[in-house]
């Protein structure tokens, strides 16, 4: 397993032009994982900025997901002949971000990593992403990003927090294990083959984020597990996830919805992210303790509104398994200690990757 050590004391502010230290953004509303802990017993926060952009804070470590800070009316390029117009504003602007220690980027698409963000971010800010995105971010000559870490499906990287120890046990250090999960932006078949040739829509990852404590290079105890679907459709490869974690709980799923349909609302030909129906099917497959939908209603190419998902959840009898966040809301939860070792080994991951490859060929 790969390792990345981060010292929050030296991370600094995320952009080249940041002026002054910014506090963690103030939330409009705070919601708590109901079966996990009371608010006063929580130790981690997820702040929803908009689209798939969230800010995760735990044990002094801050991770920003899929940074997209465009405003209503701004345009993004999503592929040859495909553009989209933002319909919403982010909860905060990029210049209002506090210190950021790392970015988790699901794929290299402008509604997840817009051009102003790419221009403004410091080049030494650690970014964990797909092999494709790494090749793009590191191929800019003197303007390349210098700390990009690529993960393919079922590959893992452990982020260790330097200079911190768990309360009551100086041998255990806070760590976050990030594992690439399967995802496909284009449905299998002739269109996927054509996309592989044209490279119109980039490859995408989901993520399994495990927050916990480590006492050695391969000794990691998970305390809270978050699955982020990424911009995927409902594909067979996702069935590997419950198999991989069949004896482990998934506490939270952040699901990318929207039913993104290209080339656009005037000609909706191809859906490339989950709609309400597929979102419910993914809940039934993964069976997380709680689901929070993100990546909804933000662009005009998002053809499946959040209200459709709400209705589908009710019809499926899953209302008690979903929590809804508006932009500028925060979600609090507790990362437990002493829960047990993280699921699987590198050999397990290699086996799963082999199965995925075999299924894809078949």
TrEMBL record:
It comes from the Eukaryota. Residues 1-21, 164-184 are annotated as: Disordered. One of its GO terms (molecular function) is hydrolase activity. Coiled coil: none annotated. SUPFAM superfamilies: Metallo-hydrolase/oxidoreductase. Keywords: Hydrolase. InterPro entries: Metallo-B-lactamas, RibonucZ/Hydroxyglut_hydro, UPF0173_UPF0282_UlaG_hydrolase. Residues 64-296 form the Metallo-beta-lactamase domain. This is Metallo-hydrolase/oxidoreductase. It comes from Bimuria novae-zelandiae CBS 107.79.
């Amino acid at each position: 397993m790969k390792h990345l050590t981060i010292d929050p004391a030296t991370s600094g502010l995320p952009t080249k032009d940041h002026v002054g230290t910014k506090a963690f953004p103030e939330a409009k509303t705070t919601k708590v994982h109901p079966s996990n802990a009371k608010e006063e017993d929580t130790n981690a926060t997820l702040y929803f900025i908009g689209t798939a952009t969230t800010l995760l804070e735990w044990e002094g470590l801050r991770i920003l997901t899929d940074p997209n800070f465009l405003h209503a009316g701004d345009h993004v390029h999503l592929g040859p002949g495909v553009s989209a117009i933002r319909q919403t504003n982010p909860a905060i602007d990029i210049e209002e971000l506090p210190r950021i220690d790392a970015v988790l980027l699901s794929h290299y698409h402008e509604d997840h990593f817009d051009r102003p963000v790419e221009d403004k971010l410091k080049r030494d800010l650690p970014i964990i992403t797909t092999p494709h995105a790494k090749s793009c971010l590191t191929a800019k000559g003197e303007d390349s990003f210098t700390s990009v870490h690529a993960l393919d499906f079922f590959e893992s990287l452990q982020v260790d927090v330097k200079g911190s120890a768990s309360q009551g046990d100086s041998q255990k250090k806070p760590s976050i294990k990030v594992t690439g999960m399967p995802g496909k932006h284009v449905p299998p078949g002739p269109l996927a083959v054509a996309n592989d040739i044209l490279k119109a829509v980039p490859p995408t990852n989901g993520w399994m984020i495990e927050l916990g404590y480590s006492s050695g290079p391969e000794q990691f105890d998970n305390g809270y597990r978050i699955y982020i679907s990424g911009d995927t459709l409902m594909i067979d490869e996702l069935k590997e996830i419950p198999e991989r974690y069949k004896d482990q709980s998934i506490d939270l799923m952040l699901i990318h919805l929207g039913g993104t349909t290209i080339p656009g609302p005037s000609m909706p030909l191809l859906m490339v992210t989950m709609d309400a129906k597929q979102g419910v099917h993914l809940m039934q497959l993964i069976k997380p303790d709680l689901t929070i939908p993100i990546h909804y209603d933000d662009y005009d190419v998002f053809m499946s509104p959040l209200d459709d998902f709400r209705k589908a959840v009710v019809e499926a009898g899953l209302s008690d398994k979903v929590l809804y966040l508006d932009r500028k809301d925060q979600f609090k939860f507790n990362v437990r200690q002493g829960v047990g070792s993280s699921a699987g080994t590198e050999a397990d991951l290699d086996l799963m990757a082999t199965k995925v490859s075999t299924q894809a060929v078949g």
